[in-house]
Write a structure and sequence with these properties.
16% helix, seven-stranded mixed sheet, disordered N terminus, alpha+beta, 769 residues
Length: 769
């Protein structure tokens, strides 16, 4: 231990000149009186001897001012202006570094030019603030200002911390003033230890001009803080009374490199990318967060998720950000970088301005920011471009452009979640020249009681889906579609910036006896006197006995109603209203049919759909052959784990071939009339494969299936299985996370994944048994 001498009982006289009857002002060091060498040492907080040749000093000082460290051979820190931020210290100078660095690291230490700096004009700046943009600071004469019209506005308490500068950095300068009455000193002016000198101040001698000297172990001690609320004009001098030296202090060094550093490494009082911290014997130290320099060349990667090992430790134990370490006695510790995770820099620009910058691990996925806007233009999507302007040399850019025929990345085509990032990429917002929405008018046919027109507006880039059309009804008719200029209109079309306003006209189809005949043939009963005879009625083998028998009774009743209607009808046939009523009754009856299915049996093949997993991916199949192939330990495509039964589909052969006949009503006009009344009793679940990222997607949404199947990146693998449309007893939910999709029947699993693991619960995809 080394101890500074006590002050004499006689109160020392202040060395600060008096500026009024009650106030002295302590001088601040002027930039003009400091040499280049001294200024560099002050700026970096370095209290060590500087021995570099003066000729090399300017370049090194510039390096520190720019917030850079010596780079490794494969690192190319960004030179892009949008990645940089400049902090201006009034008229004293400025420093430039990267957005995301702390003020202290960017400036090379805690404090600048010996002044107390402020961002808001009222309080001292926090040197641990993360700089996100260009920032201007000004000198703060004193803080916690009161009403300037009162006499107390000139009543300040002056603090002199110059006696600590040998051991500690002074964020508020050697001298600062506080408005009298301040209840607590700002932590932003309190000293910060200089790292690496094996010295820590353990006791401070506080000598107020208007009080007795006293000792505190910390300047956060309440006794010290109360002096700020002391008498107007008081002056408080603080010196180091007791300093723990190398016998009681250990030094911890955490290595960085040219691609990044741990926060504090550039402001610890040393001049390199390594953090050096003094810690008392048996004290604790926590590894701070890592700052990674952004990169702007195609194939130079940022470094994230660093892992350190301790020098002279043969155990191989690894340390990461946030890990706490307890120091021993007489044992300095150095932690060297073992590895980092390579990552790419992805930037999004709108009208020349950077709107988002992301660091993405190799092979992972970026995320789209909110859609931007430019007055007078319609946003179309994001265009991927390379950092160096040579798109052909950037495989990721090429993959994005090939993903969709438009060459753009949009929320709709979901390319961002399907193309892995394997290079640095820039996205530029693309706009069309249409400044107004597209007007779509839905108009009815000409008949008594026709519906009024419905008008809707759509933005360029959006889609017109069948659900956007009005759900009109008309007695004895079904709404079977819409025409545009006399031709059938196919929904799912995307509006572009050149799409003109247009009108869609409703197409009605009148119910007839043919409609009833077709509906009776959908789930046919050949002989109602022998309902359960599978030779006479093959459909009897497909449904549970009780539901089939109930259906046969309804079918027989409707069949009789139809016969009576035809008998009593005029030569022109049954009315459209009667035909509509009979089709509706048939639909209500077949919607209650329950397919035969296994009940909770975990069996292979048939109708039991299994869930398999491998490395976070999932696969679903009822094929015995496919399950055996994927779970094989000898196949190169094997290694999957069979998690067992997920749900049951209607009982049938492995390819559900006989169920296909129930999946639609045919392609005739009569079939479209029936489809307007009811969905088919089975729903196909399609399987698609993404050739870019290897993802499989299962969907029962015909629009989603059609859209993905039309994209070059997707292979349509057809129907995976069929599910009951109306009588399913198990909700099968779909969740998504990035480009991954998951089917689940477990509500607890869905809750945990969607609330704690970053998955999005999309809702019920379909029903099963």
């Amino acid at each position: 231990m080394t101890t500074t001498p006590e002050y004499d009982n006689e109160r020392p006289q202040s060395t600060c000149p008096r500026v009024s009857a009650s106030v002295r002002e302590c001088p601040r060091v002027s930039a003009s009186t400091v040499s280049l060498e001294e200024r560099f040492l002050t700026m970096t907080g370095n209290n060590k001897v500087w021995r570099a040749p003066l000729a090399g000093l300017a370049s090194i000082a510039m390096l520190a001012t720019m917030g850079l460290v010596a780079g490794t051979a494969n690192a190319a820190p960004s030179s892009a202006a949008e990645d940089k931020a400049t902090v201006t210290f009034g008229d004293a100078g400025s420093v430039t570094g990267y957005k995301g660095e702390t003020l202290a690291d960017l400036a090379g230490g805690y404090g600048y030019d010996g002044e107390t700096w402020t961002a808001d004009g009222k309080t001292p700046v926090d040197w641990n603030t993360v700089i996100k943009e260009d920032t201007k600071l000004s000198v703060l004469g004193s803080y916690n200002f009161v009403d300037k019209n009162s006499d107390s506005d000139s009543s300040v308490v002056s603090f002199d911390l110059s006696g600590l500068s040998s051991y500690e950095q002074l964020p508020g300068g050697e001298y600062f003033q506080v408005q009298q009455g301040t209840k607590e000193l700002s932590k932003n002016v309190l000293p910060v230890d200089k790292g690496g000198d094996h010295k820590i101040v353990t006791e401070y001698l506080v000598t107020p001009l208007k009080g007795q000297p006293f000792t505190v172990s910390s300047l956060t001690d309440e006794k010290f803080l109360t002096v700020a609320a002391g008498d107007p004009g008081d002056q408080v001098k603080v010196t180091a009374k007791t300093v723990a030296d190398k016998d009681a202090v250990r030094t911890v060094t955490v290595k960085g490199d040219g691609a990044g550093y741990v926060l504090g490494a550039k402001s610890d009082g040393t001049k390199d990318a390594d953090l050096v911290v003094d810690v008392p014997n048996k004290g604790e130290f926590t590894i701070p967060a890592w700052f990674s320099y952004p990169q702007d060349e195609n194939n130079t990667q940022a470094e994230t998720a660093p892992v350190w090992t301790r020098d002279r430790d043969d155990s191989g134990k690894e340390y990461k950000e946030g890990d706490s370490i307890t120091l021993g006695v007489n044992e300095d510790r150095t932690f060297s970088l073992k590895s980092t995770t390579k990552a790419w820099t992805v930037r999004f620009y709108n009208d020349g301005e950077l709107v988002s910058s992301q660091t993405v691990a190799n092979g992972k996925y970026a995320s789209l920011p909110s859609d931007p806007s430019v007055a007078g233009y319609a946003f179309k999507g994001w265009l991927a471009v390379s950092a160096d302007g040579v798109d052909a040399s950037n495989a990721t850019v090429s993959a994005f452009k090939a993903y969709d025929k438009t060459g753009l990345v949009t929320k709709t085509n979901d390319a961002i979640n399907n193309v892995a990032i394997k290079n640095n990429v820039r996205f530029v917002a693309e706009y069309g020249n249409k400044t107004t929405q597209v007007k779509v008018t839905f108009t009815d046919a000409d008949y008594n009681g026709k519906h009024d027109d419905v008008v809707k507006y759509f933005d360029a880039g959006s889609f017109l889906n069948a659900s956007d059309a009005p759900a009109w009804t008309r007695s004895g008719y079904s709404l079977t579609g819409w025409t545009l200029n006399g031709k059938t209109y196919e929904f799912g079309q995307q509006f572009t910036d050149t799409t003109d306003d247009f009108v869609l006209q409703a197409v009605w189809s009148q119910y007839t006896a043919d409609t009833v005949e077709s509906a009776l043939d959908y789930v046919k009963v050949n002989d109602t006197t022998k309902p359960n005879d599978e030779k006479v009625n093959p459909n009897a083998a497909r449904f549970e006995k009780s539901s089939w028998e109930a259906y046969v009774k309804s079918y027989e009743k409707i069949q009789q109603e139809y016969a009576d209607a035809k008998y009593n009808a005029p030569a022109s046939g049954i009315t459209s209203e009667t035909a509509s009523k009979l089709v509706g009754e048939l639909a209500s009856a077949w919607q209650k049919l329950v397919f035969k299915h296994e009940t909770g049996a975990n069996v292979l093949g048939g109708s039991t759909v299994h869930r398999l997993s491998k490395g976070g991916e999932h696969f679903y199949t009822s094929s015995t052959r496919e399950i055996a192939f994927l779970t094989s330990t000898t196949s190169t495509s094997g290694g999957w784990t069979d998690e067992g039964r997920l749900f049951e589909s209607p009982k049938d052969d492995e390819k559900n071939s006989t169920l296909k006949e129930f999946s639609d009503f045919g392609g005739t006009e009569v079939a479209s009339q029936i489809a307007a009344v009811s969905k088919p009793i089975v729903t196909p679940v399609y399987r698609l494969f993404n050739k870019v990222n290897g993802d499989h997607v299962w969907t029962s949404d015909a629009n989603e299936h059609a859209y993905l199947a039309a994209q070059a990146a997707w292979n349509d693998e057809g129907v995976a299985f069929y599910t009951p449309t109306f009588t399913g007893t198990t909700d099968v939910a779909r969740l998504s996370k990035g480009n991954r999709h998951l089917l689940s029947t477990d509500s607890n699993e869905q809750k945990v994944l969607s609330t704690k693991s970053g998955w999005t619960l999309e809702g019920t995809a379909f029903k099963a048994y």
